[in-house]
Write a structure and sequence with these properties.
There is one protein chain. It contains six helices and 20 strands. The chain is an alpha+beta fold. The chain folds into four domains: 148 residues, TolB, N-terminal domain (Rossmann fold, 3-Layer(aba) Sandwich), CATH 3.40.50; 72 residues, Immunoglobulin-like (Sandwich); 67 residues, Immunoglobulin-like; 111 residues. The protein has a six-stranded mixed beta sheet, sandwiched between helices. It has a four-stranded antiparallel beta sheet with strand order 9-8-11-12, with no helix packed on it. A four-stranded antiparallel beta sheet has the order 16-15-18-19, with no helix packed on it. Helix 1 packs across helix 4 and helix 5 packs antiparallel against helix 6. The longest helix has 58 residues.
Length: 425
């Protein structure tokens, strides 16, 4: 029998600390140990990881690590040419490591065996349990539980070591396997609490069931399941957090962080559960300018806020520099608008003077035109017409000077307004 095995690690995102949690590297190490123990049973042949990657790459199969549902795993098994796939998960809940494995027949996609075991203690204890788990998966007797005293030959009443929870689908009952992120979420069937994830039940009476999965500070996942004898239903729920997560950083550190006037701690500050809304965030540090900002927190997201605080001396010097720059700009505005206003007013005065001279000349030409001719100074008709023509020309010159005076007086008035404003602002 040729088998491919894959073990993944599931945890609530942003909720597992490196010191006490479990990483994907730990899960891969457990996978390698389980591979070795399965091979030692002598019942199966295993594909090497490098060989698996080469085959998948050659066949164009994208093994991104997201292949966890039965259909995808069966497709992968067909590409690899194996008869059976063993897959599962390992996670940590409190002081227990939760190991869940299931074997799938590649030919028909059905689950052959489901195994679940809770291992107390450290990760090293999990490794000690792997040989027995491997034997159980291939149908052999598990052997003694790690750490249990050997049963004496002459002690028939010695207790039998406890076996892990091995699930073999029954033809007369439905089977349900419930997993969730985060682990340890409460499971209810038809409104009745039945346990926490990972949860397995292979004795369901065929019929319809309402399944609900919930965890503190997370949204509840609900679905309906029709139990059918001999069939296994796997439900994986990724519960979204009802709260947001916020990380507040500052330079320098040790600034007190206030949210809507309430002190939440000093930076660097991490708030794992914060109600989604808009907050007025204040950072206060002695000798530094108080920073105030509006922050919007969304649920099921992690936001990182990073701020640089400035000393009051820095702000004072910045304020002086800003005042100097403002004064320089004001002086520039005064000069520009003063020159424009003065030039316009001066040009208007010039046109006003020219208009006065033109009016005087116009009056003289009009008087000459209306002068009565005498015998001593006879005026011909041609000279009379010329006087009238000179008078009309002078009236046009007068009109141009008046128009120029009006235009430049108006322009001067327009530029005088911003000049006066620039004196005070």
């Amino acid at each position: 029998m040729l088998i491919y095995i894959s073990v993944s690690f599931f945890s609530c995102r942003s909720r597992v600390k490196a010191a006490g949690g479990l990483t994907q590297a730990d899960a891969e190490l457990i996978t390698d140990h389980l591979n070795t123990d399965l091979f030692k049973t002598g019942r199966i042949n295993l594909l090497e990881r490098a060989q698996i990657n080469d085959i998948l790459k050659e066949q164009g199969f994208q093994n991104s690590g997201a292949c966890t549902d039965e259909a995808c795993l069966v497709q992968m098994g067909q590409v690899l040419g194996v008869e059976e796939i063993i897959t599962g998960s390992i996670g940590k809940l409190g002081g227990l490591f939760l190991v869940n494995l299931r074997s799938i027949d590649v030919a028909n996609g059905k689950i052959i065996t489901i195994l679940s075991e809770d291992v107390p203690g450290s990760l090293e204890e999990v490794v000690k349990y792997l040989p027995g788990i491997a034997r159980e998966l291939v149908g052999l007797e598990r052997g003694p539980t790690p750490g249990a005293p050997a049963k004496p030959a002459d002690s028939p009443d010695a207790p039998t070591p406890a076996k892990p929870s091995v699930l073999r689908p029954s033809k007369n009952a439905g089977t349900i396997v419930v997993e969730s992120i985060p682990l340890g979420s409460a499971v209810t069937l038809n409104g009745k609490a039945v346990g926490v994830t990972p949860y397995i039940d292979n004795k369901l009476v065929p019929g319809n069931y309402k399944v609900a999965i919930s965890a503190p500070h997370h949204a509840t996942y609900a679905t309906e399941y029709a139990a059918i004898g001999g069939e296994v239903k796997r439900i994986v729920a990724d519960l979204s957090c009802d709260f947001g997560r916020l990380v507040v950083l500052s330079q320098p550190e040790k600034a007190r962080a206030f949210f809507d006037g309430r002190l939440r701690g000093e930076t660097p500050l991490t708030i794992d559960t914060i109600y989604p809304k808009t907050y007025a965030v204040e950072l206060r540090l002695q000798g530094y300018r108080t920073l105030i900002e509006q922050v919007v927190v969304a649920k099921d997201t992690t936001d990182t806020l990073s701020y640089a605080l400035f000393t009051t001396a820095h702000f004072d010097s910045a304020r002086v520099a800003q005042r100097r720059a403002s004064l320089g700009k004001r002086m520039a505005r005064r000069v520009v608008f003063g020159v424009l206003a003065g030039g316009a007013w001066g040009t208007g005065i010039y046109f006003n003077k020219q208009a006065s001279l033109s009016i005087d000349k116009e009056k003289k030409l009009w008087a000459l035109y209306n002068e009565t001719p005498t015998h001593a100074d006879p005026v011909t008709a041609a000279e009379f017409e010329q006087r009238y023509s000179d008078y009309k020309h002078q009236t046009r010159v007068t009109d141009r000077n008046r128009a120029g005076r009006a235009v430049f007086y108006s322009v001067g008035g327009v530029f005088s307004i911003p000049f006066v404003i620039s004196v005070f602002f």
